[in-house]
Amino acid sequence: MRGNKSTLMQDLTFIKIPEIKSSVTEVECYVCGKGLQDGISITAKTLSHGIVLFCDAHYSLQ
User: Fold this and answer.
1) Whole-prediction pTM value?
2) Which helix (H) or strand (E) holds 56?
3) Which of 7, 20, 48, 55 could disulfide-link 36, Cβ–Cβ 3.0 to 4.6 Å?
4) How far is CA 11 from each of CA 14, 23, 50, 55, 56, rounded to the nearest angstrom?
């Protein structure tokens, strides 16, 4: 992680008991590291090894 970043992607899990679990991941391109904080649009793509995030410039290359 580089510097202070404030962009978050949150994945909430609701369970029958009143407990909420969440995890947070920064939204940035897998290739160049740019993200929403840089004014870049991010798109997720499912690859053989899992879901990867790409900016517009790198999404079309995959």
Assistant:
1) 0.56
2) helix 56-59
3) 7
4) 10, 6, 16, 20, 23
Report percent pLDDT > 70 for the chain. Answer: 79
Give phi and psi for 22, each to the nearest 5: -145, 160
Phi and psi at residue 58, in whole multiples of 5°? -100, -20
Judge contact between 21 and 15, C-beta under 8 A. yes
21 token code pair: 């679990």
Residue type at position 58: H
9, 12, 13, 20 from 23: Cα distances, Å? 8, 7, 9, 10
Q: Which of 32, 26, 33, 58 is nearest to 43 (CA)?
A: 58
